[in-house]
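Entry type: protein chain
Record version: 2
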Amino acid sequence: MLRLKLFLLLAVLFTAGFHQEPAAEQASMRLHAFYYPWYGTPELDGEYIHWRHDVMAPGSKVTYPGGNNIGADYYPEGGCYSSGDPVVLHRQMQQLRQASVGVICVSWLGPDSFEAQVLPKIMDMAAEFGIFVNFHLEPAVQNSIHSIRETIVHLFDEYGEHPAFYRAPETGGRALFYVYDSYLTSAREWARLLTTEGDLTIRGTAYDAAVVGLILNENDTGFIEAAGMDGGYAYFVVDGFSYASTTANWPALVAWAREKDLLFIPSVGPGYSDVRIRPWNQSNQRHREAGRYYDCLFAKAIEADPAIIAITSFNEWHEGTQIEPAVPFVIDQFTYLDYQPLMPDAYLDRTAAWVNKWSHYRQGTWAPDSLHHHPCADGISRSTVLHLAVGKKLKLANPFSEKYMAGGTTALLDGITGSNSYRDGCWQGYEGVDLIAEIDLGQAEPVSGLRVGFLIDPQVWIFPPRGLRIEGSADGSTYLLLATAIPKMPHNAVAPFRQEQEVVFEEQPLRFIRVTVESEKICPANHPGSGQPAWLFVDEIQVF
């Protein structure tokens, strides 16, 4: 039996395509894990807190009660637990050390919250294990810039002298606060707190701290600078969900941060699954693929070479991003996801192995394979193409939907094409408007045509374009019409499917190319969505 178990374990590691290296000798202060202290049980807290969870869908009256039936797609190895239970905290700190995590970023929802009640126990237990604690300020404490300042002051006054209170070497020994949904407060208001001339400034005071804001869109870097923040972070681990969570953008964001003497903190995670509480959110699910998704994100984060990497998450069970051990579990009419064929604690060891690789990378003794033009996939087919405009500048006349960003303004020239699924993170969506894109090749290049990839899936209101118009310019001011085209659909095609429209013209030197893709705009009369905005989905504009 022992030989059989050993053989199965070796088979698991081989199947995952991952060489398990020895864990780092000590926890890494440069690796921060988002940690949620909001779980409670009837035995210790009078009720199931957070394990009991409503389905977050319009009109839904479903609530998962807790116990065996929880608001999560995975089930924890130890069952429902209380974040205030010393036995649980001891186990979790051991697990964090097993993963070589040196800093936990604890969600903070205010001094009167349940989380505040258990925080002293977390701080004390973390100190016993040599783990440091910083804070993730949730929207609940962001009613005004005054309440944000009060929050920072409170946390300093209560815990600033605690041995587990984190002070970042990368910020000159200052404390570090993450601020979720930081855009809820204007940059002007933030500047009152975070610039030396602000009337509420913490700069140069006993409460001075590094404050990093959430980056969603490409222009959020300007917000970070105007607010006086010390950098930004990605948080989300769905590759393509936002500009900052798109791995292809990490090198540019790290370069921006270095140029401005700020931080950019990418987030890595093993996957994403929140179907039980958000059944409408299928497009953002990312399967773990026996650890391969985690490996891809970690490798890309290391290759981008940031000062700090964050893990989303240690124990956010509702969104299925946890590395805390999970086990197979079945209740009536529902089977929870699990980590098989990996062991329940596999992501702890996997994290430690990546910390070890990271250490070797910084010593110049290891380098990840270059993955810049390959998104971290989850088993859905994606492919890459090379063409004249890959990585070039692009301006858009109409905004894309924030629901389907595919990584932002770089998405249409990143060399990545989508699959037949609108959920794969590679499609950029335009709701009720045309796509008008101006490409700058940087210098005049001989151009003879282009291809535009689009998705057809009328069942979800995604229609083919009505037509294409291609214009060219040498100076970006005066444009000449090069070609037009009306897409022709293949016979007997069954949606959904990806289609490319190729447009060719006489070769000529061009620096600027304007591409107009005319959308259906409104769902047709014979469609269930008649009269409602129609979707146009585009994945890549290939120039040749």
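Comment: Residues 2-362 form a domain with the TIM Barrel fold (CATH 3.20.20.80).
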